Amino acid sequence: MDDFATRLKTAMNARHLKQIDLVRAAQQVGVKLGKSHVSQYVSGKTVPRTEILNFLATTLDVDEQWLLGHDTTAKTATTRVERHTPSSASGNAEGSASETRTDRRNESSPASIHLEEEGIPMRQFHKSTKLDNVLYDVRGPVVDEAARMEESGMHVLKLNIGNPAPFGFRTPDEVVYDMARQLTETEGYSASKGLFSARKAIMQYAQLKNIPNVGIEDIYTGNGVSELINLSMSALLDDGDEVLVPSPDYPLWTACVNLAGGTAVHYTCDEQSEWYPDIDDMRAKITDRTVAIVIINPNNPTGALYPPEVLQQIVDLAREHQLMIFSDEIYDRLVMDGLKHVSIASMAPDLFCVTFSGLSKSHMIAGYRVGWMVLSGNKHMAKDYIEGINMLTNMRICSNVPAQSIVQTALGGHQSVNDYIVPGGRLYEQREYIYNALNAIPGVTAVKPKAAFYIFPKIDVKKFNVLDDEQFALDLLHDKRILITRGGGFNWQEPDHFRIVYLPRIEVLRDAVGKITDFLSYYRQ
Questions:
Q1: pLDDT at position 126, please?
Q2: Residue ranges of domains in the chain, CATH in brackets
Q3: Taking the model in full, what pTM does it have?
Q4: In 266-413, which ranges are continuous DSSP H helix?
């Protein structure tokens, strides 16, 4: 990494380019590159992925291998750097690419890379090209910078991730007690789909949600919902298959669709309509390659809760085009204002639906990794797909067995989370505070969330001259030591939103809002 950073700076200095010049050049050719990315490369913290490496090499007119620190092309690269003048800094992004680039798979050829000291071949290992279209900025470059700051002794307030435990939300005592009592009984593997007791409790919960045609064989436990999202996409998608995914979304959905070889096609959720899905936009994006619709309800990152009339329109659309429905309902027990969550599967007995939920959020036990998915509706049309799910489920052996052992306890009896979501409860009062406080900041507006523990405020990009939301998040981190997640991290295309997790107590949120208010009083990008 140090070699790359050194040579990148050498090439930039030779052409009299600053970091912002590379960012602007990237915008001109449609390459996604933020200033924080460039600063990471220049400081030697990371090496760019293939697409960005190609862009940098082409823009700077140097050889990719030289940039990476390989000596075999050093003379050629150095010569190119030395002979260029500042006047050629832009507009050359497409010219000599074929001359300077080497096929990625050939880069690792032993004949092309040598250890200078010993003269023996050295192989290079690259990450899979399947990761080129995978984004997960909830734990991305800005989070890496926050970790670096913490390592240097700074305190960072983390409002970027929905992790209840650090903010004083504790696992119910009964759940901890029951897991401890069963530890010696859960040392071996369970059935690949999960313990019978856990799946029985989940099946009964699905019945309470009016999800139709569900038997014990239709329940799959997982190491959190995240594992099951990945598994369900991998079992379904062939190259080129399309899945409709909301924008903004929980980014794992888009990542898993792309990683499985499919294409995530984003439909817009409308901020002017309580962040409900834009049905017309959804309809316009259905093609003959579309196989499924994903909904996240209650929604992360917006906190929206979809009413039955919106769900019915989605069901009608799926029915018309014979599409599967994947419904992420992990926050279904964190609904406020006396509203009720309706599972979309309960409205679609004739369609094939996969419903996801778990205990991470509703029972404040994110670290236990307890999730599940429920297959329902017309399973005959998905018989082959279900075989694929079973194969992948068997291959991963089983999910965490001690965690499975407390599903029955957690889903039965008093639900402690209910105390948090009513007036006087922590989540309810913190939601009220953050909503009013953010809307009081000049240049900031926010739709009131109805569920979960996130809010997705909008910033006036003209007022603050925001062109890059990642840079905005990085600047806020550096100036005020507050870590948020940029809107682009949720596949939102404009640089005008960010997500705040309102799990901290009101006094902490008050301090954070005060710092954000001060930051925005002077900030211009």
A1: 80
A2: 1-68 (1.10.260.40), 131-160+423-522 (3.90.1150.10), 175-414 (3.40.640.10)
A3: 0.77
A4: 279-284, 308-321, 383-395, 401-404, 407-411
